[in-house]
Amino acid sequence: MRFFLVLGSGNALLAILLAALAAHRLEASFSALQLRLWDKAVSYQLTHALALLAVALLVQQLPRQRRFRTAGLFFVLGILLFCGSLYLLAATGLEPLRYLTPLGGLCLVAGWTVLCQAALSGE
């Protein structure tokens, strides 16, 4: 439980800091495309940080349900790959990073799928 609580709150904090960085520092030096990529990364990171906080609560309430942990791990991997690749792509322009973004998106989808399955199974 603590693992997901730390990762969820840490990612929420980081997303807010990165949004502030974009608004106060990067806006002058980034193109419109770079800012859109950055903003998309912030949005998805914050959304999935909240999902990790929900997973932390679910793991605490239903510790035997392993699917919640699996969903949380998919969310963590998705944040790293999806959001991380968008941040790096916006900051560096390295095109090969684009190939990581869909993999991260698949991890986020997998996390929501597993979370939904866990909720439906009622275990």
Please tell me the overall pLDDT.
Answer: 97
**End-to-end distance, in Å?**
18 Å
Count of helix runs: 4
Strand content: under 5%
Structural class: mainly alpha
Main location: membrane
InterPro entries: DUF423
Keywords: Membrane, Transmembrane, Transmembrane helix
Subcellular location: Membrane
Provide structural commentary.
The chain is mostly helical and 123 residues long. It has one domain (2-121). It has 4 helices and no strands. Helix 1 packs antiparallel against helix 2 (32-61). It is elongated, with a radius of gyration of 15 Å. It starts with a helix and ends with a helix. The mean pLDDT is 97. The chain crosses the membrane at residues 41-59, 71-93, 99-120. Keywords: Membrane, Transmembrane, Transmembrane helix. Belongs to the UPF0382 family. It is found in: Membrane. It is a multi-pass membrane protein.
